[in-house]
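Q: What would this chain look like folded?
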Amino acid sequence: MTWLRRPVMASAMSQKPEIQLAIFAQAVDAVGGQRAMARFMGISEKEVRDWLSGDAELDRNALRSASQGLIKHADMCRRLERKLSPAFVENLTDKQLEGLSLPDGRPEVRKPG
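A: My prediction, written as structure tokens:
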């Protein structure tokens, strides 16, 4: 049995190239610039510049790599946020803990030493 593939046709919902490029440019900014995006994607900065300038068209592989780069960046940001957030008392220094109150509003008494 032979399976026939329907041709992929542009739909009314497809992305316009100029909008896709603008979103890609936002992604490049979000990860820290062309060098950072190139590093995340495993490519040269020139390739990123060529896409941003319109000298080269974004293809599906580029979009996939950029998306994976964004995920790596987001994962790194989540790990850093977890280590910096004052919502977790283990992230605070002794000085930052001074005067911290307990959830019921009572001041926390810390023993010296």
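Residues 60-84 form the longest helix (25 residues).
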